[in-house]
Task: inverse folding
């Protein structure tokens, strides 16, 4: 079946964050929203059919995740990532952000040092700070249009006794599909100094054409024993509203600690429709995902080409993974306030501001490319018009 990603679906007034919170975040409804990381595409038929079929039963009581749910997930991880996962290694979490928070509670103590690599997905910062742990930055370095890790600095933090690192693999917002070699260096350091690795792999299925995802825990048995991995169908299949994710821990001692927190919070029941949607996605989603990746690849090419020819003020960091582009506006010379005002008021766009992602984000904006091509074209034309001093017609 051929899916139509060009179709424009009006999402406003569906209580959706991206459209219906524009006033709150941008002070106006008059922006094309290209911020929060979900997609403007329709949920595919094989997921909607499974949801409808279950809804027809009309009794929505307490539910479990059946064997078929786990089989669909483990088969997916094997098929897509050549990663053999045992059912016993899988714990539930409603989302990856809750999972990161639970990992912080389960595997560290108050005042422990936890490493993050900014600019990075900002809820990592609160997951550390709000539980009284100490945030330690291993700053990423932008070099030739790509972030690289600073391993010397990382080793220093490991040596100084950090308890944990929270990794975005692939990286949001920089779009790195971290290579095997980069991850091996990171894992060698963390294993040597006993620093636990929490690998947020929510974007692992969304690796763009020409790149590969490396499962951190798949590098070696020693690394697997020192890693907690988080995966979800939410980004891949646009199911964030279903609040269903998985935490994969092969080390039984770590799993026991994680389960203690999960049990105490009493959230493992999860969401009946999240279970149904996830199983359908992992069972039937390959062909749809391949078409989606081709479509996103087309959007990335449009962005690169447009920026190259018509937006000399903006440097685009090409995403190796994720459907987010990291745009460097520093050549415009605008300060952060001017840039924010320009993007909202002149270009009529709702983007994520770089500094939200921590140090290193200054001068950047994050743009979500998971939209019909015509929407992206319009957004880029608005940006171009903004630079020419015209006010965007949103
Ligand atoms: C790296 C990363 N982790 C986690 C999330 C969100 O996780 P969840 O909605 O499952 O809590 C996002 C969403 O953008 C993300 O980019």
Result:
């Amino acid at each position: 079946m051929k899916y139509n990603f060009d179709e424009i679906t009006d999402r406003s007034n569906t209580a959706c964050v991206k459209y219906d919170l524009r006033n709150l975040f941008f002070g106006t409804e008059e922006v094309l929203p290209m911020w929060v990381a979900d997609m403007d595409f329709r949920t595919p038929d094989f997921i909607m059919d499974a949801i409808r079929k279950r809804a027809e039963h009309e009794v929505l009581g307490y539910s479990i995740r059946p064997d078929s749910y786990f089989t669909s997930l483990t088969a997916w991880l094997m098929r897509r990532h050549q990663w053999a996962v045992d059912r016993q290694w899988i714990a539930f979490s409603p989302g990856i952000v809750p999972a990161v928070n639970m990992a912080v509670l389960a595997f560290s103590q108050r005042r422990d040092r936890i490493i993050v690599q900014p600019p990075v997905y900002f809820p990592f910062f609160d997951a550390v700070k709000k539980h009284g742990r100490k945030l330690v930055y291993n700053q990423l370095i932008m070099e030739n249009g790509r972030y690289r890790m600073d391993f010397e600095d990382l080793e220093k933090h490991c040596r100084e006794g950090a308890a944990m690192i929270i990794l975005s693999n692939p990286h949001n917002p920089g779009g790195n599909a971290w290579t095997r070699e980069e991850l091996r260096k990171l894992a060698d350091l963390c294993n040597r100094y006993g620093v636990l690795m929490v690998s947020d792999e929510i974007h692992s299925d969304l690796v763009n054409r020409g790149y590969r995802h490396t499962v951190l825990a798949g590098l070696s048995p020693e690394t697997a024993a020192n890693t907690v991995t988080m995966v979800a169908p939410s980004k891949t299949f646009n199911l964030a509203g279903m609040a269903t994710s998985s935490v994969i821990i092969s080390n039984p001692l770590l799993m026991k600690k994680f389960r203690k927190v999960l049990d105490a919070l009493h959230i493992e029941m999860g969401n009946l429709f999240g279970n149904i949607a996830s199983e359908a996605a992992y069972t039937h989603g390959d062909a749809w995902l391949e078409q989606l990746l081709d479509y996103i690849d087309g959007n990335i090419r449009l962005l690169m080409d447009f920026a190259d020819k018509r937006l000399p003020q903006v440097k685009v960091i090409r995403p190796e993974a994720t459907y987010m582009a990291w745009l460097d506006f520093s050549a415009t010379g605008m300060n952060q306030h001017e840039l924010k005002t320009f993007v909202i008021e002149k270009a009529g766009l709702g983007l994520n501001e770089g500094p939200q992602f921590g140090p290193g984000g200054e001068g950047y904006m994050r743009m979500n490319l998971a939209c019909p091509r015509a929407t992206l074209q319009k957004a880029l034309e608005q940006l171009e018009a903004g630079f020419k001093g015209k006010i965007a017609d949103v």
